[in-house]
Design goal:
5-stranded mixed β-sheet, 6 helices, single chain, 236 residues
């Protein structure tokens, strides 16, 4: 009876998550679809001329929809990652360094200084290298997006009992402490300087949470004056 009750509770939770996902996606799709419909109706009625600027606006909204759909598909794959992980001993620092390479030009363009402090460069973790590369890439994307011109990004590893902690800290507008408990929730709208107007679909950190927890790790975020820090842990 107890097992049956737990199964029923689990099924109810899955159904609730499914319904919330549908509502969230519908909400996020509404704005770009409304914009596209409005412009198309104005074009048909002759209210707005079919100028290159108008067509570019429509193109941008279409790209926004495509980006959102891609992000939702990534999140769905991340939520099912527990069944598809290829876990093996992985050189974590080497993984971080490889994940940083695609961002080097953006760091250079923004005159962003990158500081690294790897406690043990040879440390090995039990991980799916492809999935953890995605975790690191998502956090780096977040960092480069919100670090101001001439700012600093710090990346460090610290060995703890039975696990290793990786931190990413960036200078710039810090998070509101009230947002911290929800920052890894899908589509969460936090402090305005980190709103979707700056790019993204509000799913990147939700993917980070799903993939790290699939590895039996933990995630978190902290804030201090002028700096925001994200961290995750992986078992050794």
């Amino acid at each position: 009876a107890a097992v049956f009750n737990r199964m029923a509770e689990s099924l109810a939770e899955i159904e609730m998550l499914r319904k919330r996902m549908v509502i969230d996606v519908a909400h996020e799709l509404r704005t770009p679809l409304t914009n596209i419909r409005g412009y198309l109706e104005a074009l048909v009625d002759g209210v707005v001329p079919p100028t290159p600027e108008t067509l570019q606006l429509l193109h941008n909204e279409t790209l926004r929809l495509t980006s959102l759909v891609d992000a939702v598909m990534q999140l769905a794959r991340a939520e099912g990652a527990k069944q598809g992980l290829s876990v093996k001993p992985t050189a974590l620092v080497e993984l971080i360094e490889r994940a940083m390479e695609p961002f080097e030009q953006r760091f250079s363009d923004g005159k962003i200084r990158v500081l690294t402090d790897f406690e043990d460069p040879a440390v090995m973790v039990q991980a799916d290298s492809r999935r953890i590369s995605q975790v690191i890439g998502n956090i780096l994307q977040n960092a480069v997006q919100y670090t101001p011109q001439g700012g600093t990004v710090r990346i460090a590893t610290e060995q703890l009992p039975g696990e290793i902690r990786v931190t990413f800290a960036n200078s710039g507008a810090e998070l509101d402490p009230a947002d911290l408990p929800f920052i890894f929730e899908r589509f969460y709208r936090g402090e305005k300087s980190r709103s979707r107007d700056r790019g993204g679909a509000g799913i990147g950190l939700a993917i980070v949470k799903e993939l790290v927890e699939a590895h039996h790790g933990r995630v978190g975020a902290e804030t201090s004056p002028g700096e925001t820090l994200f961290w995750f842990t992986l078992p050794l």
